[in-house]
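Predict both folds.
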Amino acid sequence: MFVLTRQTLWNPAVLETRGLPKRILGRVMPIPRRGITAPVLARLIFEVQPLRYGVALAPFAVAMLVWPHLALPIAQAPLAMVLVLGVVEMRLLRLRPDRREAQVDEDEAARRLDRLAFRARALLRGIAARQGIEDGDLRLVIEQSDLVRIAPLTLVSVQTDRPAPRLLDLDDRDRAALFRGLFDAELTERDLHAVNLRQNSFLREVRIGARAVSGHARMAAWIDRKGGPTLAGAGAGR
């Protein structure tokens, strides 16, 4: 999982948008500068289609080096290369519709999406309270790659329509809350990926209105910013 925000990218210009939700995969290439682990970085690089093509066609290059006298015939066999790319991209790295539906049953898929929505709304309320956002809609957008047989790639962002469509800047505390509260052993990235494969839908968004955030939550966030005890902690000490 990688959180998309200006603070985590070398090229934050890719986050600019005129409409919501903002899609990333297959359209732009985010270049991480912080907040990403080596395995997730490698997975993000693997998402670059030309690089995957290069890996799939590597055996042809090796064959031309091993058998130089066959280099010209191999280079002039584009049909074979196209067939290899088709097998890798459409059969190895993606699933047929019947196999997508077999990933998870319909009832379990609905339960997983309900659990995701419940967690996302709680996270959005916390972010809205901490950032003092009082108007417009906030959306937690979770985008996953459709590639299979490798670790799922999950991009997470918080998007809003006020004062214009944009991706929110998220500080360390906001990002930590997302990492802590979105996925765990009960709902993993693979669990969500199975649902997305079944429904052939890889962009999820959960929305709340900023005005729906309670005064209690805003007060707790204000006290937390000031470094004082939380309301719960103050009540426990009485």
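Second protein follows, with its predicted structure tokens after the sequence.
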Amino acid sequence: MAKVSLIEGPVGAGKSTYSKSLAAETNGIYIALDEWFTLLFGPDRPDAEVVTWYLERKDRVLNLIWKHAGALLASGIDVVLELGLIQRADRQAFYRRIVENGFDLRVFVLSTPENIRRRRVQQRNVERGATFFMVVSDEVFDLANRLWEPPDERETSEYCLEFVSYHSAVPEV
């Protein structure tokens, strides 16, 4: 049976890099919320009220991703999902969606110190390399950082979570 690998962690933790590596290692298909979001809605991104605008569209993109992932999984293809589910309730709802559809779930939670994460995001904003999907301002970084809820005991005991320290250094920007 095909497996779902869900990669989670705070902004700048290295989720995209880790996800791409895991997808290559497992022959899975990598699907990133931010990439789909940018392709679908990027040209319409407003200059102000970005967070409200983003949240109004996020569920639609998650539903579309799940529909696509479900088709891949039904065909026997593993998927690696990077969905930015920074709040515990959102992650648990998505876990249930996967398990209730009969698929195996592995969750990788990345942990990286905030100073390294901030530098990674600033560097990514400048370089716009392979893991760049959208500019993450300092304001958005701070908001997402405050909203990040690490898994608690209940989440850890109910689902198969693997904690990954991802502390590789980044050059100063």
